[in-house]
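We both want to read discrete structure tokens more fluently, so let's practise on a single case. Would you supply a protein for us yourself, any chain you care to pick? Would you write everything just below, so we can both look at the same thing?
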Amino acid sequence: MTAFVIAAIVMLAALVPAGVTLVRGELADSVVGYEFISTVIVMVLALLAEGFGRPGLFEFPVILAVLLFGGGLVFVRALERWL
């Protein structure tokens, strides 16, 4: 295992508290948890692509980052009356 794969595994452990906040927190806390989880997932995918030596797999995290950012904005826009 390379350092990149180990870093990806460690970052996945950071998703547990964010997932709890996402499920049990207030609405504003859930939005922050969603954005944090989407950011960590993009970084984990990039680390795994580097760790396994597959430069062609870097396209997916980049596209996912753009789509998740837009999805987060749509999520906040839909819930703005309750925030």
Summary: DSSP finds four helices and no strands in the chain. The radius of gyration is 15 Å. The helical segments are 3-13, 15-24, 27-51, 59-78.
